[in-house]
Design brief:
Layout lengths: L1 E7 L5 E5 L8 E11 L1 H7 L9 E3 L3 E9 L11 E5 L8 E5 L3 E3 L7 H9 L4 H5 L5 E6 L4 H11 L2 E9 L8 E2 L9 E6 L4 H10 E9 L3 H4 L11 E4 L5 H15 L5 E2 L1 H6 L5 E4 L11
Parallel strand pairs: 9-10, 9-12, 10-11, 12-13, 13-14, 15-16
Antiparallel strand pairs: 1-2, 1-4, 3-5, 3-7, 3-16, 5-6, 6-8
Helix pairs in contact: 2-7
Length: 290
Amino acid sequence: MYLRILVNFCGVPEARGYRSFIVRFGEVAIRISYAYMSSVDEAYTKCWVVAQDSQHILGTIGVGKVVAVGVGVDSIREGDRVATITFSGSAQSITTASSSAVHVFNSSNYTDLDLVFIASLSIQKQLLELIKGVHVLIVGKDLSIIPFALTAQQYAAKLYIIPKYTLWPDIVKGEHVSLFEDKPISDVAVVATYDPVVVSAIPRLVKEDATLVLHPLIKKISTLTSSAPSSFNIKTMRFGDLAVGEAMYEKLRDVIVPRVPVVKPDEFIKKPRFPSIISFTAKDIEEPSS
């Protein structure tokens, strides 16, 4: 039996046990050791996002070992240590994922827990280039903002944050602005929250021709660009550049690792926390009876 953490459309998460899985064409099955619970998972638990399926499995990023490989997969083998970045379905002790969303990382220099952080910080380098030399607004309580913040602190003309709605403002340091500001201040906005109050305020804080870098799904579920849809340049955060993730992790590991709780599945069910990491190692799983 393996364990899933899910919500019914949205709302309170629960754990369920399952006995089998299917590996389809182009997929691999992964025995998950750790799963990252991000702002998108928070959105489902707070009903800021409603799933199309009756059962939505939580978990943005999963790390573990490949236990089965489907037909049509040539670049991944059983036994490979991998990170899967799908924004759903990683919070289960065994998950299946398209091989295109799976990144092999067999380095012996890092543990599986290290790899969860690395994958969470693995923003594509081209997106980080967008914030060099311009005024940048960063908002959201998610690890994905850390690469943007670190780059902005070094290379941006100015960095703004909304402290109440931004992860670790003592690390993500910038000029403080109010959520209720009514002045376009930024050329680029990095948004990693699904809170409708925050999302609806973003158009007031960016310039008319601004670039919006949005955490996955925000573009689909919000009216963020309704005020001037043709004037904003919309880009979605893209993950999977593990070299970037590794570099960011090495710079900040001693600062960020102690701040992200690693919890057992039953602990998460009782008190969901975001961001957090769920441990699916054998000693941490208390599987429900069938």
